[in-house]
């Protein structure tokens, strides 16, 4: 496809006071200041054929009506409404045949859908005044992505999405979400593959609610004030679980059966111990415990996680780290990050088996480094910056 960046521009003064500005290239048109009530014929007569998208900047309407959207759908597949403070409501008709609707920087507070709609595949709403997830979204039977950001939504009821059988991705990012519930009957199975709840106000997350999301691959609840993670969680699909930047003091994985989980990120929390039963997560490849309050670490707590590649323990308060216990030998480990701790000794003398392992151990107070019997050499143990505070550092090698 050739992207033509030269724009055809038109500025017309219509019968009303507002001036409509109109710019098009081969792919899209931007209309600024259109009032659907008065300027609709204008839009039809000047719109080129076969454009993909129409971009309404400062659309002057409080209610975006089905008749208007249906007419737009005859001209293009994708509609964007931006910087339109008068827009408060949008109504999507069951017959609307648009692929995507994106609404950003409006006063949108109501979204209705007047019946089962098969056409719409993406709905994006940013910087709106929505306080609830519109229940009518259940009628969007063809929707694959729902992405709502920076809007004051407080509750997510997963039951809304029991009938959206194509929904893969649900993102509620930087909304004001305080609770996630699921009022659905047992027969509802959710088709979600990605659930992104970053940057909300969640303080508790009950993973059991997600049991009906049998296809879920990725869950992100980073940047919340989560203190408590509860519920049993059984899922064969999930590979990524991100809980970075929360306030979790204790995490217990004993009720988790997540046979495919390969990435667990719990960095920047308040953990004082390695999560209990973490050894059940047999497929784990990346474990990030950076930025917690761990004081002691023993590699045996990870025994059996034979697929683990990257272990990040940096930015904790470790005064001891037992890494060379033969019972905790992890055959595939590629890197251990242990920078920014309070270690004085690093004993890697039993890690002879791991020729490709890299250990990053800078910013500790390591005065005693034991690399005897190992295939590791100082090139793979990074100690910079060295901060040994003893005068006579013993370097046993
Ligand atoms: C929707 O629009 C597409 C592309 O213009 C067309 O192929 C399809 O038949 C339309 N569907 C309906 C139900 O009108
Ligand atoms: C662990 O998380 C921290 C903070 O989020 C990040 O900077 C670091 O790169 C991560 N480590 C790995 C090995 O991905
Ligand atoms: C490192 O650990 C091995 C095995 O546990 C031990 O024999 C050795 O003395 C230790 N090295 C130091 C410097 O403590
Ligand atoms: C070491 O710690 C200092 C002070 O906390 C910090 O500024 C620096 O970036 C750290 N260096 C590394 C390699 O993490």
UniProtKB/TrEMBL annotation:
Domain of life where this protein originates: Eukaryota
Signal sequence interval, chain numbering: 1-19
Cellular component GO terms, alphabetical: extracellular space
A Pfam family recorded for this sequence: LRR_8
Keywords: Leucine-rich repeat, Repeat, Signal
Keyword NADP among UniProt keywords: no
UniProt keyword Repeat, yes or no: yes
Coiled coil (residue ranges): none
Name of the protein in its database record: AGAP005668-PA-like protein
């Amino acid at each position: 496809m050739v992207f033509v960046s030269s724009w055809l521009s038109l500025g017309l003064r219509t019968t009303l006071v507002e001036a409509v500005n109109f710019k098009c290239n081969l792919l899209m048109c931007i209309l600024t200041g259109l009032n659907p009530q008065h300027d609709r014929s204008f839009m039809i007569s000047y719109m080129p054929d076969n454009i993909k998208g129409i971009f309404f900047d400062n659309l002057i309407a409080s209610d975006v009506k089905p008749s208007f959207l249906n007419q737009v759908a005859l001209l293009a597949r994708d509609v964007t409404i931006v910087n339109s403070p008068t827009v408060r409501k949008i109504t999507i008709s069951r017959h609307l045949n648009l692929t995507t609707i994106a609404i950003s920087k409006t006063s949108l507070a109501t979204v209705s859908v007047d019946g089962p709609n098969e056409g719409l595949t993406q709905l994006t709403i940013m910087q709106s005044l929505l306080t609830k997830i519109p229940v009518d979204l259940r009628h969007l039977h063809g929707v694959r992505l729902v992405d709502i950001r920076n809007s004051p939504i407080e509750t997510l009821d997963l039951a809304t999405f029991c009938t959206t059988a194509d929904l893969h991705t649900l993102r509620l990012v930087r909304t004001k979400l305080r609770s996630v519930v699921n009022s659905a009957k047992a027969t509802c199975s959710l088709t979600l593959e990605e659930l992104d709840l970053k940057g909300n106000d969640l303080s508790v997350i009950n993973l059991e609610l997600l049991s009906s999301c049998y296809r879920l691959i990725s869950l992100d609840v980073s940047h919340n004030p989560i203190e408590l993670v509860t519920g049993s969680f059984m899922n064969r699909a999930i590979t990524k679980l991100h809980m970075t930047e929360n306030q979790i003091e204790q995490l217990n994985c004993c009720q988790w059966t997540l046979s495919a989980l390969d990435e667990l990120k719990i960095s920047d929390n308040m953990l004082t111990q390695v999560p209990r039963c973490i050894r059940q997560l047999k497929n784990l490849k990346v474990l990030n415990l950076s930025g917690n309050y761990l004081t002691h670490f023993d590699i045996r707590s990870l025994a059996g996680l034979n697929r683990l590649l990257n272990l990040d323990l940096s930015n904790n308060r470790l005064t001891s780290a037992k890494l060379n216990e033969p019972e905790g030998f992890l055959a595939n480990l590629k890197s251990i990050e242990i920078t920014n701790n309070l270690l004085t000794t690093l004993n890697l003398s039993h890690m002879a088996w791991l020729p490709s392992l890299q250990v990053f151990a800078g910013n500790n107070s390591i005065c005693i480094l034991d690399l005897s019997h190992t295939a590791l050499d100082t090139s793979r143990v990074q100690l910079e910056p060295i901060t040994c505070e003893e005068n006579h550092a013993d370097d046993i090698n």
